[in-house]
């Protein structure tokens, strides 16, 4: 019988998603990668900064990506926590996507800058995270032992 892997696929996925979110958060503060960085507001819909020249960002949104990304590494320590991170984080990003899709751009109801590109980013992140949580759940949790079937002794 082969030894159990050190980490399960769901834990690896949580670390990869966390790394991607940290990279996005950092890039949101990098001149050249983020256009109009001089127009970056802390919060609010009027921030003129655009990650990759298309995705509306503000400092708060960049920090949220950094925090959620770091959480991916924290939760990746166990199978169950990694799965919960992917599912919960995915639902969070799908909620932000839904919020952006239902509230008109430029509305005072927006506390973060959202545009079509930001909505697609949040939809993609949320969908991928939920799919990873659901599909990688097919692996059994290595901390929970499955009972072994005993073979009947043949005489």
From TrEMBL:
TM segment ranges: 12-30, 50-75, 82-100, 120-138
Keywords: Membrane, Transmembrane, Transmembrane helix
Protein source organism: Mycolicibacterium gilvum (strain DSM 45189 / LMG 24558 / Spyr1)
Lineage: Bacteria, Bacillati, Actinomycetota, Actinomycetes, Mycobacteriales
Keyword Transmembrane helix: yes
Name of protein: DUF4383 domain-containing protein
Keyword Transmembrane on entry: yes
